[in-house]
Amino acid sequence: MKLRITPALWHNVLTGSIFLAVVVIISYLLPNQNTFKYQFEIGKPWSYDLITASFDFPVYKSDTQVQKEKKAILRDFIPYYKKDTTVAGRQFGRFVAEYKKNTGNDLKDGELIRQRWDHIYQQGIISAEQLQHLQLEQSERIHCITPDKVVHTTDIDEVYTPKTAYETLTSAIPFSVTNYNLHLYMVENLHYDSVINDLSRKEMLKNLSLTSGMVQAGERIVDRGEIVTEELYRILTSLKLEYDKKKQTNLERSYLTLIGEVMLITGLILLFFFYLYLFRPRIFENVNHLVFINLLILIVIALASGVVQYTSVSYFIIPYALLPVIVRVFFDSRTALFAHMIATMIISLIVDNAFQFLIIQVAVGMAAVSSLKDMTQRSQLAHTALLIFVTYSLVFLSLEFISEGDLKRINWGSLIHFAISSGFMLIAYLLIYIFEKLFGLISAVTLLELTNINSDLMMQFAEKAPGTFQHTLQVSNLATEAAKKIGANSLLVRTGALYHDIGKMKHPEYFIENQLGGPNPLSMMDFEAAARVIIGHVNDGIEIAKKEHLPEQIIHFIGTHHGLSKTRYFYNAFINANPDVKPNDELYTYPGPLPDTKETAILMMADAVEARARSLKVYTEDSINDCVESMINSQIADGQFKEAPISFRDVETVKAIFKEKILNMYHTRIVYPEIKKPVI
User: pTM for the whole thing?
Assistant: First the structure.
C-alpha cells in the first residue's frame, strides 16, 4: 500500500521533529548533575549561594604541598645501580692482547697494572652524565647491586667516570704503558636500574598522605561574598575532585540522572505543545510560529547553561524576561507566560538555588507580560525594563529578608546583576525587527507604522480612489470598535481594513463611490464582464500589496474580505434578465479564501455593512437595525464564517456595535435658523 503524504501528515511529521529536536537539544545543553559547576579563584569573593557538603569527602593537599613533602621524603633516597663485574676482566684481556699484537712483547708490570685496573673497576665507573645528575640531586651515595644480588653502598666521590678512571690509572703505572690508548678500555660498569629505583621510590612514598582532614556531610563550606582563601580553595578543589570521581564510578546513577532529566524535559515540552494544540491552534498549525517560540526557549536555556557551566558570572544577569516580552509582542499574554514558565522550570534544574530562581522569575514574567498589552511605542520597553528591575529587586530582597534575617548578610551586589539583566530589555526592539523578517511575523509597532495614512501608499490611495479611501476609513473605525469588544486584535483589524480595498486603485472609475455622476462604465458591459471587473479588485489588491512588501497578515485581509461571496448585484441582474438561463456561479464568485480568524471575519462584516449603509435612503434606528441584521445574517447563511473562530455571541456583539456606530455616523443634524429680515 502506497503511503499518501497529505499536508496534515507532513505537518505532523514536522511538528514531531521540532518536538524531538527541542528535547534533544535541551538535554544536551543541561550540565551533568554530578558535575561541579562552580568557578572560583584564590583571593576572589565567592559569587554563588551557600554551599554545604552533601557527602563526606577528604580535603586534598595542594600539588605544591604534596611535591614539597615528596621532596623531603626522597631527600634520603639512595639510587640503585647495577654493577657488571665481568667488564674489568674482559677489558683487561682486550688490552693485553692488543698490546702484545702491536708491540710484539708481553706486558711489563702486568700485575701492578692489573691491581690498579681491578681497583678502579671495583669502585665502579659511571657515565659523566649520570654523575652530573647525582650531583644535581645532591645524592651522596649510591647502592651497587652485583649479579649475585649483593648490595653495597658507595660514596659518589669514590666512583669514577671513564675520564677520571683513565687519569687515575695512568698516574700509577709505567710511562711506556700510558702511551698506549688506555682510555679506550675505561668503560662504564655501573648502570642505572630504573625498575628497582621506581619500586624503591614508591615504597618510600606509599606512606605519604595526600589528604589533610575531612569535611563531614552537612558541614558549611562557603557562602556568597566570602573571600576564597588558600585553605578554602583546597576544600573546594577537593569537592570538585570528588564530584569527578563520583561521575566516573557511579555510571548507573549517572544514567538514571540523565533518564530523569530527559523524562522531565520531555514532559514539560509536551505540556507546552499540548497547550498550543488545545488553546492556540493557529500557532500550533503554523510551523514558522512553532519554530520561533521553541527557538526563543532554546536560546534562553542555552544562555543560562553556558553562564552556569563556563563562567563565574551570576546567572541572574541573563535577560530571561526577553522571552515573554517578545512572545507577547507577536502573540498573546497567556502564551508568553506559559513559554516563560516552561523555560524557567527547565533552567531551575541547573541553578544552585532553584526555589529562589523560580519565585523571582515567575514574578518577573508576570510583570513583563502585564506591562506590554500592546507595544506601540519605543518608550514602553524602557518602562517595562524599569518595572522588571523593580520586581527583581523587591522579590529578591523579600526572600533575602526571610532567609537571612540580617541586613549585613544580604547580597546587595545582586541588584547590579538585576539592573544589567533589565537593561538588556532595551535590545528587544532590535530583536523584534529581526524576528519579524526571519519568521514572517508582525508586531504592534509594524501595524502602527502601517496605519499611518500619510504614507506614500495611503496618499496614492486617497488621490486615485478618494471615495474608496473614505470607505476604508469608516470600515476601519467600525471594525476596530467591534474587535475591542470581542477581544480580537483591534490594531491588526484596523490595519487590515485600511488596505483591504487598495486593489480599487487600479481601476477606481468602475466603483460607484469614486464616480462623480455621469454614466456608470459597468452599465455598458455585460453582467459577466462587469462582475469580473469588480471581483478583480481583490487580486489587484494582493498584487499591489506584494509589490509594496506589505506583511502576509495584511495581504490575507485583502484576499478574505469578500470570502467566497457573490457579486450579488450582477448575479441577480443576470437572473432577472435571463430567467431561463442558469448562470455560471464561478464567474460571479470572489476567489476567497474564507475568513479564518476573528479579525478577518469582523472586517468582512464591517465592509459589507458600511457599504450597505451608504445605500440607505433614510437613516433611522429601524432602517440601520434592518440593514445590519440582514447583511450579517445573509453572510452567516452563505457560510462565509464557517472557518472563522467566532461565536454567535461575538456576532451579536459586533452587530450591536455596528448599529450604534452607524447611527452616530449618520445621525440627523439640527437645522440652524436663519436671521429673518425685518419687515419694512
Answer: 0.67
